[in-house]
Write a structure and sequence with these properties.
This protein is of the alpha/beta class and 209 residues long. It is built from 6 helices and 10 strands; from the N terminus they run E-H-E-E-H-E-H-E-H-E-H-E-E-E-H-E. Helix 2 runs parallel beside helix 3 (77-86) and helix 4 (98-111) runs parallel beside helix 5. The structure holds NADP nicotinamide-adenine-dinucleotide phosphate.
C-alpha cells in the first residue's frame, strides 16, 4: 500500500513510519506546512495535533483517500458526515493500544457492579489535550457521571487507572503504554480493515477486534 503519514516526524509518526516500511508499505510523509497532495495514495494516517487533524482529514475526503486517525482532542463528526456523503472511510481510535481497549471493555463490566468510578490519566508533559481521548471514551462507556483527573509530567508516556469504589473495597484497572510501539499493531490492523468499513466515521479499535 502507498500510505501518507500526516505527522511523520512526530513522536508517534517517528515510530510508525519505519514500522509501516517494515511491513512493505511505501510511506509518503506529510509534515506541517507541506502540500496535502494525495495523488497515488491508497490510505492516510494522521498523528498530528488537534488544530491540524480536521483539515488533514478533509483533504483525504476531498481526494477520496480513506484515513486512519490517531490524533485526539478534535471533533471529527462534521468531516465524518462529509466523508459519508462522499463515500470515503474514516477510522478513528482514541487509543490504538490493545491493552487500553481491553481495559475499557473490563471497565464497562466492572461498572455494572460498583456504584462509583473515577479515572486518573497520566501522560507526558507535551500532550496538548486534557482529559485524554481514552479517558473521555472510558467515561462515556460507564453509567452516570465519572470524574476524570489528568496528570501531565515528564517521564510518563500514556497510562490510565479506572478506580471503582464499593463498600469496604476498591478495584483498580490500570494500563501502561511504555513505548509508542504499542500503537503500531492497532494502526496496521486499521489500515488492513479500512476496505471493509462503511463510508463515514467509525470510532474505536473494538469495532475491529
Ligand atoms: P507530536 O510529537 O507533537 O507530533 C505531531 C506531529 O504532527 C509533529 O511532527 C508536527 O510537526 C506534525 N504536524 C502538526 N501540524 C501538522 C499538519 N497540519 N500537517 C501535518 N503534520 C502536522 O505528537 P504525538 O505524540 O506524535 O501525538 C500526535 C497526536 O496523536 C496527538 O493528538 C496525540 O494525543 C495522539 N495520540 C493518539 C494515540 C492513539 O492511540 N490514538 C496515541 C498516541 C498519541 P511539527 O513538529 O512541525 O509541529
Amino acid at each position: 500500500m502507498r500510505v501518507a503519514v500526516f505527522g511523520h516526524r512526530g513522536k508517534v509518526g517517528g515510530v510508525l513510519v519505519p514500522a509501516l516500511e517494515g511491513e512493505g508499505h511505501e510511506v509518503l510523509g506529510i509534515g506541517r506546512g507541506h502540500e496535502r497532495d494525495l495523488a497515488g495514495v491508497d490510505a492516510a494516517v494522521d498523528f498530528t495535533a488537534p488544530d491540524a487533524v480536521v483539515e488533514n482529514v478533509r483533504a483525504c475526503v476531498d481526494q477520496g483517500v480513506p484515513c486512519v486517525v490517531g490524533t485526539t482532542g478534535a471533533e471529527l463528526a462534521g468531516v465524518g458526515e462529509e466523508a459519508r456523503a462522499r463515500g470515503v472511510v474514516i477510522f478513528r481510535a482514541p487509543n490504538f493500544a490493545l491493552g487500553a481497549v481491553l481495559m475499557m471493555r473490563f471497565a464497562v463490566e466492572a461498572g455494572r457492579h460498583f456504584p462509583r468510578a473515577e479515572i486518573i490519566e497520566f501522560h507526558h508533559e507535551t500532550k496538548r489535550d486534557a482529559p485524554s481521548g481514552t479517558a473521555k471514551a472510558t467515561a462515556a462507556a460507564l453509567e452516570g457521571e465519572t470524574q476524570i483527573h489528568s496528570v501531565r509530567l515528564p517521564g510518563l508516556v500514556a497510562h490510565q487507572e479506572v478506580l471503582f469504589g464499593g463498600q469496604g473495597q476498591l478495584l483498580t484497572l490500570r494500563h501502561d503504554t511504555l513505548s509508542r510501539e504499542a500503537f503500531v499493531p492497532g494502526v496496521l490492523l486499521a489500515l488492513e480493515r479500512l476496505s471493509t468499513l462503511e463510508p463515514g466515521l467509525t470510532v474505536g479499535l473494538e469495532q475491529l477486534l
